[in-house]
Amino acid sequence: MHSYIVQQRIPQALLITGNKGVGKLQLAEQFAAALLCEQPQADSHACGHCHSCLLLKAQTHPDFMMVQPEEGKTTIAIDQIRSLITKLTLKPQFDRYRVVILNPADKINNAAANAFLKCLEEPNERTILILVSDRQSKLPATILSRCQKLAIAMPDKATVLTWLKAQKIQQDASVLLGLAQGAPLLALSYAKDETLTQRNECFKQWLAVAKRQTHPVLIAEQWLKHPEAPLLFWLTSWVVDLIKCAYQNHAEHLYNSDLHSSLHSLTRQLDLKGLYQLYDLLLLSRGRLESTINKQSLFEEILIQWSELNRSR
Question: Can you name the residues that pair with 67 across neighbouring β-strands?
């Protein structure tokens, strides 16, 4: 970002990509602040106290726009893009840039994407478009081809653990990072919203199904209270860890290192071929989340297959 500003080669459209929880939106917002700042610092960061910076902090800057799915909606709709296009026909009110952030850009629906192409093909005066996405493949090729791309790499584990400790996250930091697949901001949010407690509750229910102490349908109904995507990742991570345990992998190589003892004891009685079949079902289920499939039916299918896998031992 610094080099863009120093070299005065500000892209008219920039796509920031990377895994969820690595700070893409925060980086986009910092870049926007630097572009809008009236007195940028030597390192090209925003000063934080000029009139423009104060307006941005108050969320009232006339030359900054955030486009994201409206409350209760799952996509960026064409009406939002039409409204944006109308606003962009006017000149920026200040002498610096005008910045638009689309987040997450992959949530733009087809009609809105077609309309948004007008912004990319006919850029407005001093207007910078920043697209943020952790699913670049979901964006239309016509949009991808018109953006410069900045991929955010995942930081190494040691660096993230040090950072988490600086955020006062001491207990279970390594486990949280495993659940967040290495993403620092996601691990931090998990620490704050008691994700580990929820995962532990679901794991106990998972074990209860394996031991035939409860019925898969009952657990599937209870699991509807949890967000589907994280829950499916937990399930997938348990199966991956079971496969690793079958090959005698050490606890530190698992997603769920704190569950090593329980997972290892399960592998003695599970068929490896059956685990791979369950893993395939979980991957298929993750793709089905965006369809209209009944979520309880989805979890019932997974839990019944898990139950049968344990019954066949």
Answer: 102
Q: What is the pLDDT along the chain (313 residues), one digit of tens a residue?
A: 556 665 567 899 999 999 999 999 999 999 999 999 999 888 889 999 999 999 999 999 999 999 999 998 889 999 999 999 999 999 999 999 999 999 999 999 999 999 999 889 888 889 999 999 999 999 999 999 999 999 999 999 999 999 999 998 878 898 899 889 899 999 999 998 889 999 999 999 999 999 999 999 999 999 999 989 899 999 999 999 999 998 887 888 888 989 999 998 888 878 889 999 999 999 999 888 877 789 999 999 999 999 999 865 4
CATH code at 2-151: 3.40.50.300
Helix (H, G, I), strand (E, B) or coil at 127: strand
Domain residue ranges in the chain: 2-151, 194-311
Q: Are 181 and 47 in contact (CB under 8 A)?
A: no
DSSP annotation of 122: S
Place of tokens 């995507």: 229
Helix (H, G, I), strand (E, B) or coil at 67: strand
Residue 269 near residue 309, CB atoms below 8 Å: no
Third-level CATH fold of 194-311: Zinc Finger, Delta Prime; domain 3 (1.20.272)
DSSP letter at 152 equals P
In Å, how far are 112, 147, 177, 186 from 116, measured between CA atoms? 6, 12, 36, 30
E-state strands within the chain: 13-17, 64-67, 98-102, 127-133, 148-151
**Residues composing the chain:** 313
